[in-house]
Amino acid sequence: FCDVPCSGDGTVRKARGLWAQWTPRSGLAHHEMQLDILKRGLELLVPGGVLAYSTCSLNPVECEAVIGAALSHAAGTVETVHVNIPGLTLVPGL
Predict the structure, then answer these.
(1) Angle CA(43)–CA(54)–CA(82) in degrees, nearest 5?
(2) Which of 2, 6, 56, 63 is catalytic?
(3) Could you give phi then psi for residue 29, rounded to 5 degrees?
(4) Measured distance CA(4)–CA(10) in Å, rounded
(5) Which helix (H) or strand (E) segment is 53 a member of?
(6) 41 falls in which pLDDT band (50, 70, 90)?
(7) What is the pTM of this model?
(8) How distant, in Å, are the alpha carbons of 5, 33, 73, 83, 90 from that of 86?
(9) Does 6 participate in catalysis according to the annotation?
(10) How far is the CA of 42 from the CAs of 2, 8, 21, 30, 58, in angstroms?
(11) How far is 10 from 18, CA to CA, in rounded Å?
């Protein structure tokens, strides 16, 4: 499970002061570290294992872009899988 450090912009409803500090570049500050953590997690993953990537960000730079870069780096050695959790509604990413 990779619950990586992030900008936290997905928590603005409960962390109201966060919005005043947010900028479009906020996610860029975390992207490289998030990617490094995810790549390390994938290196440690046993064949047939499952890794979940998590942030509390809504920023595609911290979510879809990190996943895309990790998949590109893995060069076909890993794949995404659909997750079905009863009661949880998922929406496709970008």
Answers:
(1) 80
(2) 56
(3) -65, -20
(4) 13
(5) strand 53-54
(6) very high
(7) 0.85
(8) 27, 32, 32, 10, 11
(9) no
(10) 10, 23, 32, 18, 22
(11) 10
